[in-house]
Specification:
heterodimer, A: 437 residues, alpha/beta, two-stranded antiparallel ribbon, disordered N terminus, B: alpha/beta, 14 helices, pyruvate dehydrogenase (acetyl-transferring) activity (chain A)
Chain lengths: 437, 392
């Protein structure tokens, strides 16, 4: 498809490359009728897209939600009486707000700490994408699993990993969730079932598929009462990777309880999604493998939550996987080392107006679910948690040398038998970390 | 689908949720045992360490078994091992291409899908990187998958998952998750299978931290290693050889495992230490017959554990003979022999009367033509010549 001259002019990631696809779009588009955050888009505007389509046309309309034919028609509430059909209760609203604010404040603190030399290496921040993490993960139980990529701090926090443990891990201290051995890109928590944290994109998707397989195995082979689901989070760049497609196939084939959540923020470092993908509508790849594909506005936590509820429900009921494409945006560069020169400031500004936290705040105020004071109290509480996590991380010890050789093997006999006949792990130097293994 | 395994769902639930609870260990056939204490692992679980043998004797099946045992072919021994472990622990499952209905390309899992069902013996699509990653995810959440690479060469496609996730994930997660997978399959040079089906992946995998590699060579050690590998909490790669599946041997009726880290004394001797593994063991034994007729007394050790090396057994032998010949099927460059040479030089330099001789395959892609293929791998004649030169 024709691309604009520079990668800077991006209006709507959903570009219709031909009138044929526009027709298909119209027939399979299901627009959520109830009012949602910032949604001014009516069916008329979207349907009118059909007549104006040309190969190079760009459209600045955002899409509320698009689903493929496989998803059954959901209940449609009439838009006009939206005011009486609130999507969340006050408690839920506060939970969502708190979680998103925690994610944002934590990431901002990470940036500060990085530039002060407290953490090093590659640190990828999640600012702007909080609605996806909060919208999905707050619906999960503790036993459900989450698999992420290198942009994993906020997924871990949403899942329940204490901020202290994440911050310590980033500082490389022993009190970190991975004893300082993993770092920013490898957040793991057995207690909260965060299965990583992976540096290579696509690497975590098979792991998530395996966790979903275990859930099915427990139910069908071990005859346990198990309805655990797994969420796999990954980006737009990953959707061109073989492991993605291989796992879509296997998950659909065996109806695994997994939801594939695409955080499409349009950019893979400096590679625009449109420049690297033959068909940029990622949600369409779901039906190709026999699962529903859903596109949702990832800057709107309530819309994400609604789609997530359906997708997670499907998985729990044993109906199989779903592919959810969340249109979202990262407000910062790819990582703290990225100068972020390629993205158009106008694009960034436009997405900044769709800040998910601001939008939720507005919704809470407009629907009298919370007032300024309550939200300020939440902000304060979170700020204190973040401050505490930094203090804790600062005060924590760095790993001593003797930690070096631990955890390489679950069974340290794997280091073998030394010339003296003893297992190397029995060598006192092993515990000191100075043994030659 | 699957039959009940006599494990209550509560126990199974506990077992799956806390894989640290290891089932009771069974008699390990050893010649001598002394207890070791190993408290170095500070991760969440307390390891249960079984006794280690200070073994110099061959693990002779006949001396250990009270009954005569039964005859099996090597692939049947592997299957016995698999089946016993699946019977014992309902979390053990098999993934791989054609492992279920087809019974495995070398029939190692024949009949298991009928017995345990299609989910426990999972026929995967052709997606090595992904189904090995799936095995990692399953292992992290409580299962114990045994993954078959239809040919070990195909595992090159899974290098990402084997290196990053199998090998390193236990460490990067700070010890929180264990990956008790077994990756197994046929490798090595066969009969004119062509270059890509004749690869020796042990040389590529040996640097990956966090995995163990073992190579079986007889029905006895095949079954024992399979069982030990499945029970191990570490990820283990079990290398089988395409040409050894039909070897026949009498193995004990009673249950046994062999140690993953120990080498096997095949033939004690005095003049020279010959270190080998997998198929080359048979070329060495063939050469040994000739050598014995010529008056030599070679000591043949099947190293079995490719990573880590059993430096005790190897060292004791070198201290006795002072000469080392390594016979392997890997390429000259960067193979197991190369690593072994380095390890021996580092640790036993004082005991050597001569430089180590390492006979490896030629650094060429294995040709299809039979005559050429024959000369890419080490032949018994070369072994005889090498010993004669060493012992001059």
């Amino acid at each position: 498809m024709a691309c604009s001259a520079t990668a800077k002019i991006i209006h709507n990631p959903l570009v219709f490359s031909s009138s044929r696809s526009a027709e298909k779009y119209e027939s399979c588009c299901k627009i959520s009728g109830r009012s949602s955050l910032g949604s001014k888009f009516l069916g008329k505007k979207l349907l009118s897209a059909k007549s104006a389509i040309s190969p190079a046309s760009r459209r600045s309309g955002a899409v509320v939600a698009v689903s493929s034919d496989i998803v059954k028609e959901k209940k449609v509430k009439s838009g006009s009486s939206a005011a009486s059909n609130l999507l969340i209760t006050k408690e839920e609203g506060l939970v969502l707000y708190e979680d998103m604010y925690l994610g944002r404040a934590f990431e901002d603190m990470c940036a500060q700490m990085y530039y002060r030399g407290k953490m090093f290496g590659f640190v990828h921040l999640y600012n702007g994408q909080e609605a996806v993490s909060t919208g999905f993960i707050k619906l999960l139980k503790q036993e459900d699993c989450v698999v992420s990529t290198y942009r994993d701090h906020v997924h871990s926090l949403s899942k329940g990993v204490p901020a202290r443990q994440v911050m310590s891990e980033l500082f490389g201290k022993t009190t970190g969730c991975c004893r300082g051995q993993g770092g920013s890109m490898h957040m793991f928590s057995k207690e909260h079932n965060v299965l990583g944290g992976f540096a290579f994109i696509g690497e975590g998707i098979p792991v998530a598929t395996g966790a979903a397989f275990t859930s099915k195995y427990k139910r069908e082979v071990l005859k346990e009462d198990c309805d655990e689901v797994t969420l796999a989070f990954f980006g737009d760049g990953t959707c061109n990777n073989g492991q993605f497609f291989e796992c879509l196939n296997m998950a659909a084939l065996w109806k695994l309880p997994i939801v594939f959540v695409v955080e499409n923020n349009l950019w893979a470092i400096g590679m625009s999604h449109l420049r690297s993908t033959s068909d940029p509508q990622i949600w369409k790849k779901g039906p190709a493998f026999g699962m529903p594909g859903v596109h949702v506005d990832g800057m709107d936590v309530l819309k994400v939550r609604e789609v997530a509820q359906e997708a997670i429900g499907r998985a729990r009921r044993g109906e199989g996987p779903t592919l959810v494409e969340c249109e979202t945006y990262r407000f910062r560069g790819h990582s703290l080392a990225d100068p972020d020169e390629l993205r158009d400031p106008a694009e960034k500004a436009r997405y900044a107006t769709r800040d998910p936290i601001t939008a939720l705040k507005k919704y809470l105020f407009e629907n009298n679910l919370a007032n300024e004071a309550e939200l300020k109290a939440v902000d304060k509480k979170i700020d204190e948690i973040i401050e505490d996590s930094v203090e804790f991380a600062d005060a924590s010890p760095v790993p001593a040398r003797n930690q070096l050789l631990e955890n390489v093997f679950a069974d340290p006999r794997g280091f073998g038998i030394g010339p003296d006949g003893k297992y190397r792990c029995e060598d006192p130097k092993f515990t000191e970390g100075t043994a030659q293994v | 689908m699957a039959a009940s395994f006599g494990v209550s769902s509560a126990a199974a639930a506990n077992a799956v949720k806390s894989p640290a609870l290891s089932p009771p260990s069974l008699p390990v056939i050893r010649s001598e045992a002394r207890p070791i204490s190993c408290r170095v692992n500070k991760s969440r679980k307390a390891g249960k360490i079984t006794t280690k043998a200070v073994a110099a004797q061959a693990e002779n099946p006949a001396s250990a078994a009270s009954k005569p045992g039964h005859e099996v072919l090597l692939f049947e021994a592997l299957r016995e091992g698999l089946e016993e472990e699946m019977e014992r622990d309902p979390r053990v499952c098999i993934f791989g291409e054609d492992v279920g209905h087809y019974g495995g390309s070398y029939k190692v899992s024949k009949g298991l899908a009928d017995k345990y069902g299609d989910l426990r013996v999972l026929d995967t699509p052709i997606a090595e990187n992904s189904f090995i990653g799936m095995a990692v995810g399953a292992a992290m959440t409580g299962l114990r998958p045994v993954v078959e690479g239809m040919n070990m060469g195909f595992l090159l496609l899974a290098f990402n998952q084997i290196s990053d996730n199998c090998g390193m994930l236990h460490y990067t997660s700070g010890g929180q998750f264990t990956i008790p997978t077994v990756i197994r399959g046929p490798g090595g040079v066969g009969r004119q299978l062509g270059a890509e089906h004749s690869q020796r992946l042990e040389s590529y995998f040996q640097s990956i931290p966090g995995i163990q590699m073992v190579a079986c060579s007889t029905p006895y050690n095949a079954k024992g290693l399979m069982k030990a590998a499945i029970r191990s909490e570490n990820p283990v790669v079990l290398f089988e050889h395409v040409l050894l599946y039909n070897l026949k041997e009498r193995i004990p009726d009673e249950e046994y495992v062999v140690s993953l880290e120990e080498a096997e004394m095949v033939r004690p001797g005095e003049h020279v230490t010959i270190l080998t593994y997998s198929r080359m063991r048979y070329h060495v034994m063939q050469a040994a017959k000739t050598l014995v007729n010529k008056g030599y007394d070679p000591e043949v050790i099947d190293i079995r554990s490719l990573k880590p090396f059993d430096l005790y057994t190897i060292g004791n032998s070198i201290k006795k003979t002072h000469k080392v010949l390594i016979v392997e099927e890997c390429m000259r460059t960067g193979g197991i022999g190369a690593s072994l040479t380095a390890a021996i030089n580092e640790n036993f330099n004082d005991y050597l009367d001569a430089p180590i001789v390492c006979l490896s395959s030629q650094d060429v892609p294995t040709p299809y033509a039979g005559t050429l293929e024959e000369v890419t791998v080490v032949q018994p004649g070369q072994i005889v010549t090498a010993v004669e030169q060493l012992c001059r």
